[in-house]
């Protein structure tokens, strides 16, 4: 991978400083029990999340309910992760009766220069604190006081955006309502089943242009492209599981809605820059190293 990370870990929070030099791409599958805030720490280079360019002076709120495909070059970003129940508790404690559903679905926050500056100060402070290194992983431990400070800082940003939503953000809420309605409706459908666009229009209660706009705004891809990426993400998750290391790629292709192993391989390589068999080989290697440690 052509990027490096600086890591800070706590019980309920983590911070990753991600710096890329040459071009790098990867797909992250977050846990729905966590939320994240992604901010820029450099104004140069290129950083794209689900094919959407990360604009200057903007921050991403990530709700952890779907995969994120990252492509970056010559950029530095800061990702702060917090357990969802911890953030919900803090927001409720600070503001009392608050509609936490307002933060369901990922968001893009504009006009975040102050937030970015505060995050830069925070990471500089952590770097100079000289906290002891953990023995079990590469990175630095966060103290309880530092964790509380991190949570409070992110909570402040979220509350500010919730109390003073911009018209652009309100438009995003409509977009996420449409895409989430479809995502929830098809969640348990077999991936090899064909989904017609007319069916998606009916589920969302939206026309062709509105549906297209919502998916591009949320996922950086129109509905048909999103559905294909969804099948590829699920196939990758399946192949990364060591329990499936003896699977036949042709069977996997059919299971996830591709007519042949060749079609799966071509689409898979275009997104993940490796063939399905390479993913299986890597998963086997990881499992073998884990068994040796045990």
From TrEMBL:
<keyword id="KW-0238">DNA-binding</keyword>
<dbReference type="InterPro" id="IPR053142">
    <property type="entry name" value="PchR_regulatory_protein"/>
</dbReference>
<keyword id="KW-0804">Transcription</keyword>
<feature type="domain" description="HTH araC/xylS-type">
    <location>
        <begin position="176"/>
        <end position="282"/>
    </location>
</feature>
<dbReference type="GO" id="GO:0003700">
    <property type="term" value="F:DNA-binding transcription factor activity"/>
</dbReference>
<dbReference type="InterPro" id="IPR018062">
    <property type="entry name" value="HTH_AraC-typ_CS"/>
</dbReference>
<protein>
    <submittedName>
        <fullName>Transcriptional regulator EutR</fullName>
    </submittedName>
</protein>
<dbReference type="InterPro" id="IPR018060">
    <property type="entry name" value="HTH_AraC"/>
</dbReference>
<keyword id="KW-0805">Transcription regulation</keyword>
<dbReference type="GO" id="GO:0043565">
    <property type="term" value="F:sequence-specific DNA binding"/>
</dbReference>
<dbReference type="Pfam" id="PF12833">
    <property type="entry name" value="HTH_18"/>
</dbReference>
